[in-house]
Every structure is written in structure tokens, then in C-alpha cells.
User: Which sequence fits this backbone?
């Protein structure tokens, strides 16, 4: 991760890893659906379909940041989410 892509600690937001079909999160990072993550970089280039990626670390972890796709995480806002 480039220094200019990092987010200051006071601006880092928390996310949750959503259910998805990608097994790489569990195998390479030890993250399972429901893992709390903190985004430590700005959103980076996408895959050509408008989906971007960023670097995350698991909350409470001191491991190196790893990439996750924008559509595989959801920001924790503290607001209720209604499925209508």
C-alpha cells in the first residue's frame, strides 16, 4: 500500500465482511463472513465494472492490511437496516 493511499487512524471506518462466494478471505486472511474490519486505505482502482477495492485489517489485529472488494464489505453505520 502506498503512503498516499493510507487513511489517518481517526478517519478509518469499520466494516463487516458479508457472505460471498470468495474463499480467499478465509484461506489467505483468516476472515470469515461477519468479521469486523477497519478500512485503512482509500478506495483504489476497480475491476472495470465499478467495483473498487481497499486495504483492510481485522479489528483488534496487528497483521498486515489485506485487500477486500467493495461489494464484499458493508460499512457499519450504527443505523438499523430495514429489508422491505
Assistant:
Amino acid at each position: 500500500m502506498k503512503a498516499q493511499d493510507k487513511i489517518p487512524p481517526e478517519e478509518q471506518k469499520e466494516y463487516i465482511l458479508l457472505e460471498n462466494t470468495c474463499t480467499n478471505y478465509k484461506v489467505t486472511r483468516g476472515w470469515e463472513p461477519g468479521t469486523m474490519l477497519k478500512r485503512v486505505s482509500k478506495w483504489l482502482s476497480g475491476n472495470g465494472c465499478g467495483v473498487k477495492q481497499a486495504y483492510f485489517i481485522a479489528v483488534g489485529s496487528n497483521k498486515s492490511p489485506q485487500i477486500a472488494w467493495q461489494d464484499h464489505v458493508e460499512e457499519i453505520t450504527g443505523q438499523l437496516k430495514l429489508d422491505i
About this structure: The two ends are 39 Å apart (CA to CA). The chain is about 5% helix and 30% strand. The CA atoms of residues 8 and 41 lie 9 Å apart.
